[in-house]
Structure formats: C-alpha cells, structure tokens
C-alpha cells in the first residue's frame, strides 16, 4: 500500500521542544550582530548544517527560482555565497541582480530572511574564497559545467575523478568561472517561533539614516 501523504502530513508536529525566548527590545541596532548571535546559538543547539540557506532569484522573464546553497560569510559588505557565473543562478543574477536568502533553524524554531541587491566580488576574492575551502569543493568547481545537460552518470564519475585528481595535485588551480556574490540586504527579518503560535517577527529595514526596526504580526 502506498503512503498517504495527507495523513502523513497531518501526523507531524512542529516545535515539540522548548523554544528560546526573544525580546525585540533588547536587540542590537545592526542586524548583522543579531544574525551572528543567532547563528552561534544555532550551532550550539546542534542544528544540522546551520550555514545552509535558501537562495531565491528570478530569471530574465521574472519567473522565480530557489535552491539551497551555503553561506560563505557575512560582514558589513553583505552575506556571501558562490557559484559558477554560467550556472542557472549565475545567469539569473546577471539578468536580475537582486535576490532573497532564507535560513531555517528548527532546533530553535528560528528563521532569518534577507533580500537586497547582489554584486560580484573581485576575481581575486572569488579565487581566495574557493581555495580556502576543501579539496572536494575545489574538485566540484573544477568539474564545472554546472546546470548543463548531463549525458550519463558514468560521464559525471569520469569527469569528477579527473577533477579530484587535479585538485589534489594543484590545490591552487584557478577556476575563472567561480564567482563570489554578496547580497547587501535592504531588509532582514528575524522570526522566533512560539508553540502557542504567538510568533515574534522583527524586521530591520535599511534607510539613509541607518537601520530601523519594527514588529510584524505573525
């Protein structure tokens, strides 16, 4: 007998754990400081892969797209991630250099959402970012051809093996298409879940005078 998706969905429970409290009045003036604190707390809480995030872009026609990528850093210049410039998301960011990011840390019932313009980092920064990562990350970048049609899994295995061997032999091998992107948020929202559904949402909005903060209904 097949799985009944409806019954399975109804059987699931959300946040059947003790959730942390969140006092918006005690938050810092800059969202980066609060993000750093929440990220560290997610790590301490045992959240699996807290550095993964959803990246939403739009194509040239304005149709949305989303995927999960890895956060490479966050500072005053923005939240950074990387990909090949010729990948689907790379082409979309060229056509429409604006995106949204979403973090979800269920271990604490927290979400962080950001959106804003995206710029590319200098090539030297992009290559430094790549070579600071693992051998596997370099091998994947060297394999290249991201988002292109794949003829067979055998072809993937063959190209991947060659890339691994090169990455081990040349740890500083350049990958010209590898691009570091930075999203400079115009808005950052912090969401703290509540078992009684009295979720707390705090929105930071960038202005010419700095950041403003406001609460939102859940």
TrEMBL record:
Top-level taxon in the UniProt lineage: Bacteria
UniProt-recorded name of the protein: Pyridoxal 5'-phosphate synthase
Matches recorded under SUPFAM superfamilies: FMN-binding split barrel (SSF50475)
Source organism per UniProt: Streptomyces coerulescens
Stored Gene3D superfamilies: Electron Transport, Fmn-binding Protein, Chain A
Family: Belongs to the pyridoxamine 5'-phosphate oxidase family.
UniProt-listed Pfam families: PNP_phzG_C, PNPOx_N
Alphabetized UniProt keyword annotations: Flavoprotein, FMN, Oxidoreductase
